What we know:
The protein is 16% helix and 14% strand. The protein has helices spanning 34-44, 49-53, 65-68, 112-122, 129-137, 211-214, and strands spanning 26-27, 55-59, 81-85, 125-126, 164-165, 169-170, 200-206, 228-232, 252-255, 263-264, 267-269.
Amino acid sequence: MGTSGAEGFAGDGEGPARPVTLSPFAVSAYAVTNAQFADFVRDTGYMTEAERFNWSYVFHALVPPESAARIARVPAEVPWWLPVPFAYWAQPEGPGTTVLDRSDHPVVHVSWNDAMAFCAWSGTRLLSEAEWEYAARGGLEGQLYPWGNALTPDGVHRCNIWQGTFPDHNTADDGFVGTAPVRAFAPNGYGLFNMAGNVWEWCRDVFSRDYHRVTADHDPLHEGPGDSRSMRGGSYLCHSSYCNRYRVAARTSNTAASSSGNIGFRVAALTLPFQGL
């Protein structure tokens, strides 16, 4: 797993590449959907951290004008992210928006802590980084993407990432501006959908830039101190001009309580407990 190539970001700790072994596990074919998360909320009354904080980050081009006009402070280093009041999983762009027509899209605005709560309810768990990468590769070795080394083989889009000039012009050549349905695009060799792009997926590990140097070669899992958690897969906002992290070896992190409109998760278990997971 990992890469020793130069295509990544030195600070992300994508390498060196190394062999690892894993115990058997089952993984959901796609990220947890809005419909599945709604079942969890109805059954438990769970309130996400975005709901408790009363805001979450939304990409600027997706925010309704009336909501954008009320936002006074924008992060200077990433001005395309707007802290939208009352944005959360069920109204992902803020008040007046809904997921009723996106039941088969990945749930977003979920923190690592929220994902762990869903796992506790469903009898599943988050994938480790090693499990995630093994699953994403789909049986291929040493390839950049879950389907091979060409981003658009024969001119065909295989994932939902930014098309055009980031952050102000999205041509949507792949068919989507925001999230795509979880079964959009062809699956990889293991039958798994959207292992590149669409939404970032939380992993179990505490993030470390030294991950490949400090974790075991069998069932590696980094559980050291720190609040940053690993994420894999990239999202609909990734573009080669600033973030080519839709590669299978790419990795990044966020704090365990953070959420945004491009972060979701998928689950694993020894055997998956119910239809769709």
